[in-house]
Specification:
It holds the Pfam family CbtB. By secondary structure, this protein is an all-alpha fold. The chain contains 3 helices and no strands.
Length: 62
């Protein structure tokens, strides 16, 4: 249960006791992949790519 006095360090400590090492590694990998995509893929390139994918899949988006 969360309270008004929860802190980030408290939540991290709770996660370390409740999650398996595999779950922690998967979470860190997900955050790293999302960070990489946001920093290096850049929004316009990602938008154009998804736009073209939708058209190739036959989805009308206009």
């Amino acid at each position: 249960m969360t309270t008004a006095t929860d802190t980030v360090s408290g939540r991290v400590a709770q996660a370390q006791t409740e999650l398996t090492p595999t779950q922690l590694l998967a979470g860190i990998a997900l955050v790293a992949a999302l960070g990489f995509a946001l920093v290096f893929l850049q929004a316009p390139m990602a938008h154009d790519s998804m736009h073209n994918f939708r058209h190739a899949a036959g989805v009308v988006c206009h």
